[in-house]
Design a protein that fits this description.
By secondary structure, the chain is an alpha+beta fold. It folds into two domains: 1-30; 34-228, Sandwich (Immunoglobulin-like), CATH 2.60.40.150. Helices cover 26% and strands 43% of the residues. The radius of gyration is 24 Å and the shape is globular.
Length: 232
């Protein structure tokens, strides 16, 4: 009888050990989710569009867009800053800009798009910026499953992202009627992500000429890749 109990004891011990080993293996196999964090570092006014008033009233609107392997938009996150009166040589630093983030899809890519505009109607633009920051900054809002190929410019991508987040067309089309100072989109393919590189600095120069005034702005922002456990 004693041998029977010893045999049962070792069977239970072995079963428990197998379950523990399996649990540990499952935890190791399950990778944490990856997130992209968008943060503006600085915006500098080097030359102005409005030389007569010695200041530009500007708005910076930006978005993160997740695109799956079929080139369909699946998630969006949006932020905006302004309306700010920028004088020549003035610099707006990171603490003034809202940070946005979103989960990176397993396949596909992340797009970071920025649009800088000079505003004519201060009050309407200020209202739009407030609405974007209140309702458009949630990275887990499902988009309309639109095809990215329908939007050929960064401005169009930002508009689509805002509409997908529930910001009305009438609100965002206002920016299209103002002076475009610059636009850009940075593509980050999921397959190119590596364990060694976690930060992607993007340095941009927006310049041009309007009514004989040559404007020039310098924008620096960063994409940072972090991991979060799904248990949290």
């Amino acid at each position: 009888m004693k041998n029977i109990f010893i045999h049962i004891f070792f069977l239970i011990l072995g079963f428990t050990s197998c379950r523990s080993t399996k649990s540990i293996a499952e935890n190791k196999a399950k990778k944490p989710d990856q997130f992209a964090i968008f943060q503006v570092k600085s915006l500098k006014a080097i030359n102005l569009e409005e030389e007569l008033t010695f200041a530009d009233e500007v708005v910076l609107t930006y978005s993160l867009t997740a695109v799956d392997e079929n080139n369909k938009v699946v998630q969006v996150a949006n932020g905006s800053w302004g309306v700010e009166s920028m004088k020549k040589g003035q610099v707006a630093l990171s603490e003034k800009f809202k940070i946005i983030e979103m989960q990176i899809p397993l396949k596909g890519k992340i797009l970071s798009s920025v649009v800088l505009t000079e505003i004519d109607d201060y009050q309407k633009a200020q209202s739009t910026v407030k609405k974007i920051n209140e309702f458009g900054g949630l990275g887990k809002i499902p988009a309309m499953f639109i095809t990215l190929g329908e939007f050929e410019t960064p401005l169009a991508i930002v508009f689509a992202s805002l509409q997908a987040a529930g910001i009305g067309l009438k609100a965002v089309e206002k920016f299209d009627q103002d002076d475009l100072l610059g636009q850009s989109t940075f593509d980050l393919d999921v397959s190119s992500l590596s364990s060694s590189q976690k930060k992607y600095p993007i340095n941009l120069i927006f310049e041009g000429e309007h009514l004989r005034n040559k404007f020039r702005y310098e924008l620096n922002y960063e994409l940072k890749i972090i991991e979060k456990s799904s248990n949290h």
